[in-house]
Amino acid sequence: MREQEITQLVASVMDAMADTISVHISLKQAKALIEKVEAKAAEMGVNVVIAVSNSCANPVAVHCMDNSYIASYDVAFQKAYTVVALKMSTMELKQLSQPNGPLYGIQHTNQGRIVIFGGGEPLTVKGRIVGGLGVSGGSEEQDAALAAYGRQAFEAWQMEAQK
Question: Which of 66, 90, 93, 137 could cross-link 72 (Cys pair, CB 3.0–4.6 Å)?
Fold first, then answer.
């Protein structure tokens, strides 16, 4: 084979493998995302815990704002777990897990780690989940708004990086 043919073959194999390569949010990205969400939470006057997990639902970073609730640590982390484990926001899951819903009772699975109220958002790159964001400490509406804000900021960074 000629060098050009080998180069084309390697490129086509790498393109084919791109969908199978696991991608995770980096610690640097997680820290930047946490800072952004923390600043927004401060603007809103709410002290929250912000958790970021990777695409395997393992923790990358967790940040507790001063005077946040102790219980919010576990809730934020489990929201980050939930969105990766089920590939949807916790607000979307909330709707599906209502009585007579298709996922009613799901919060009792996975050793009770599934959270069915707002504040968790999946983080994606090119449609693929690379991590999860969980926010806890405010009202459900505040947590959901902060998580959505964080997801939108992450998506904006990804779009900027692709330019």
Answer: 137
